């Protein structure tokens, strides 16, 4: 009967309730005749009268029953349609659990909505504030949130509400492990992103807290990642990044201690004397917002979106550089097909997406080759020696923005302990490297990685290197006008004349090619004009003299929205290598085929919102809850750059079984092209 009331297609939306609970309600439903005809009704066990059963009433009856059966609240403490007064206006709260000592005083206010409904949270807060209730609950039968009213303007998320025999302090002191965090993860339960939560924190406290928003949010994420890492290694560990009933002052002391431990574990991201600058009340609010967010095993887009927003508040976007979407990065990595024996570098690292996804690609190939289960790669679980050895010796990143470098080091260290090779250097201004690298603060933080980088140099001037792979999305905007810097580049001279200015991205083309050893290969994101403007013909000629042009992939115009609508393409090249005894043999030729493709499935809409495949793959959606999911519950972006797979471990046959979730894309077509052309990295 419930199917008939809420709609057959909506029955899965009552997943919050067990089958026993649903059967209980089914047993109480009956049909009655009214003036308007036959309708479904129920004998309300709280009001003790017959009530028309609407979809919203279904949720109310089920949750009220749970309050009695699971939370042990006597029916006498429950009130439906409890009056809430706003001046002369009277509203009605759906359910109120009344104080055990005074039934006129609300203790918990519950707002119920029909299945799939998402509204009513602000209304709930206003009811709770107006009644002075301590706690609030919102549910639509599919998801549920619990809140503590901390002050008139702020509601703190809590993991649950107390039973009749408990207090709120009992709930907040309940053991909370990584297994518990997986169950209540706010990102999957509410459909919110980490960026959404940062924006909420900014609205609530950060904008008026008198602190550097980037720094303080970064510190909190850093501390929480460390907490999750410990919780992954020790399943019995109670997570520290939460308010477990402490005062605001006690909570700040606890979080500062956690942050210091994270800095000790992962040095080189924050100064030794770094401290959390938020006041205890402000910190309490931020912790409440983040404590039920699971960062590890999440989609890295979750972290990217938050950091991209924070970086754009400072300086990143002003320099014409934006975080590269992870699906574009993955396409580049798959097409260049890096091997465990090969070195790679990102010369404009941003959030270090290219290095991290190169790591993931190589690890996956290692696991498949060893016939081991392919695991979630963004995990706090310890990595094997072979895996960490690859990251520490083969993967590098450089960026000129100090804040960005720290983000990149963080993502590298949590992905595979590769933070020591993420360096704060100006890739283009390599003539000043010797001065920069002699500064003591710089040495203390970056010297270990820099010594490894120097081993790959071909000359003492830092001009030429021997990398196997270079990947980069350099800044598009701006021109370099400094004569001393330009004099070090071939592009600094045109037709024998020194240039007064050169586009930053043009210099990156030359610089990246010089980072490659013979036979090395590169992927670089460039403005579309570099491929077809007549005035840029000299750039294309420069590339062709030094490299085989492998492919040009046109990206959708929405790729870098909402920041810019600049049309971009990805250029793939392999440096000439005439030694047939080398594994990357690529003899110079005058005539050869080039792979061209254009992205057709856009990935983002015109507003810059991510587009996902719908569950039935019939179209697109911007709602992650309606999206096609991979085996880890991550929504799959709607694009045709490559196919998405699940790797399912077959215990009986002890092998990985691949399940293809989306159609073959550009990367798969290029792999076929590369095999046909007998390119060295696809033989």
Secondary-structure map:
Layout: H1 2-6, H2 19-26, E1 29-34, E2 37-44, E3 49-52, H3 55-69, E4 78-86, E5 89-98, E6 106-112, H4 121-131, E7 135-139, E8 144-151, E9 154-157, H5 168-172, H6 178-184, H7 186-190, H8 194-204, H9 213-233, H10 248-265, H11 280-290, H12 300-314, H13 326-336, E10 344-346, H14 353-369, H15 385-394, E11 395-399, H16 402-416, E12 422-424, H17 433-436, H18 440-454, E13 467-472, E14 479-480, H19 483-486, E15 493-494, E16 497-498, E17 502-503, H20 504-515, E18 516-527, H21 529-532, H22 537-546, E19 547-554, E20 568-575, E21 595-598, E22 612-613, E23 620-621, E24 645-650, E25 655-660, H23 666-676
Parallel strand pairs: 6-7, 10-11, 10-13, 11-12, 13-18, 19-21
Antiparallel strand pairs: 1-2, 2-3, 4-5, 5-6, 7-8, 8-9, 14-17, 15-16, 18-20, 19-20, 22-23, 24-25
């Amino acid at each position: 009967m419930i199917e008939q009331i809420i709609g057959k297609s909506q029955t899965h939306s009552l997943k919050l309730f067990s089958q026993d609970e649903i059967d209980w309600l089914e047993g109480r439903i009956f049909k009655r005749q009214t003036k308007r005809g036959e309708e479904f009704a129920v004998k309300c066990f709280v009001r003790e009268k017959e009530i028309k059963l609407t979809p919203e009433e279904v949720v109310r009856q089920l949750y009220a029953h749970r309050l009695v059966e699971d939370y042990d609240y006597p029916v006498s403490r429950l009130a439906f349609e409890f009056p809430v007064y706003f001046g002369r206006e009277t509203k009605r709260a759906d359910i109120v659990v009344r104080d055990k000592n005074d039934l006129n005083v609300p203790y918990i206010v519950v707002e119920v909505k029909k299945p799939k409904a998402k509204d009513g949270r602000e209304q709930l807060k206003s009811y709770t504030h107006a009644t002075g209730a301590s706690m609030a609950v919102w549910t639509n039968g599919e998801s549920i949130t619990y809140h503590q009213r901390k002050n008139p303007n702020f509601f703190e998320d809590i993991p649950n509400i107390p039973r009749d025999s408990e207090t709120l302090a009992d709930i907040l002191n309940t053991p909370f492990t990584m297994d518990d965090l997986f169950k209540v993860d706010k990102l999957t339960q509410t459909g919110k992103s980490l960026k959404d939560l940062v924006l909420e924190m900014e609205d609530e406290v950060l904008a008026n807290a008198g602190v550097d928003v980037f720094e303080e949010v970064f510190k909190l994420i850093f501390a929480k990642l460390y907490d999750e890492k410990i919780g992954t290694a020790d399943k019995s560990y109670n997570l520290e990044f939460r308010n477990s009933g402490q005062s605001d002052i006690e909570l700040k002391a606890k979080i500062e201690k956690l942050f210091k431990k994270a800095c000790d574990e992962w040095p080189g991201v924050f100064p030794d004397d770094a401290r959390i600058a938020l006041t205890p009340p402000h910190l309490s609010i931020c912790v409440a917002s983040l404590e039920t967010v699971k960062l590890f095993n999440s989609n890295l887009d979750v972290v990217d979106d938050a950091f991209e927003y924070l970086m754009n508040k400072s300086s990143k976007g002003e320099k014409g550089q934006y975080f590269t979407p992870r699906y574009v990065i993955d396409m580049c990595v798959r097409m260049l097909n890096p091997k465990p024996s090969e070195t790679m570098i990102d010369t404009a690292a941003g959030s270090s997406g290219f290095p991290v996804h190169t790591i993931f690609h190589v690890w996956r190939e290692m696991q498949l080759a060893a016939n081991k289960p392919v695991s979630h790669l963004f995990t706090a679980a310890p990595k094997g020696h072979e895996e960490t050895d690859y990251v520490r010796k083969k993967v590098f990143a450089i960026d000129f923005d100090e804040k960005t470098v720290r983000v990149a080091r963080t993502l590298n260290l949590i992905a595979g302990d590769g933070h020591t090779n993420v360096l704060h250097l100006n890739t283009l201004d390599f003539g000043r490297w010797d001065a920069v690298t002699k500064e003591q603060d710089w040495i203390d933080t970056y010297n270990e990685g820099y010594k490894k980088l120097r081993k790959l140099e071909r000359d003492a001037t830092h001009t030429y290197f021997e990398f196997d792979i270079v990947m980069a999305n350099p800044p598009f905007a701006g021109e370099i006008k400094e004569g001393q810097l330009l004099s070090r580049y071939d592009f600094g001279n045109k037709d024998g004349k020194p240039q007064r200015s050169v586009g930053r991205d043009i210099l990156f083309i030359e610089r990246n090619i010089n980072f490659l050893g013979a036979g090395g290969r590169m992927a670089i994101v460039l403005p579309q004009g570099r491929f077809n403007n007549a005035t840029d013909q000299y750039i294309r000629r420069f590339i062709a003299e030094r490299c085989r042009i492998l492919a040009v992939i046109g990206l959708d115009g929405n790729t870098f929205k909402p920041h810019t609508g600049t049309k971009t393409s990805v250029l793939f090249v392999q440096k000439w290598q005439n030694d047939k005894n080398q594994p990357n043999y690529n003899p110079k030729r005058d005539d050869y085929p080039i792979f061209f493709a254009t992205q057709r499935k856009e990935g983002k809409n015109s507003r810059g919102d991510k587009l996902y495949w719908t569950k039935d793959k019939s179209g697109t959606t911007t709602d992650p809850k309606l999206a096609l999911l991979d085996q880890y519950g991550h929504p799959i972006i709607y694009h045709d750059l490559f196919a998405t797979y699940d790797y399912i471990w077959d215990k009986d046959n002890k092998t990985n079984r691949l399940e293809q979730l989306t159609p073959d894309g550009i990367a798969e077509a290029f792999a076929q092209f590369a095999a046909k052309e007998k390119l060295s990295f696809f033989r």
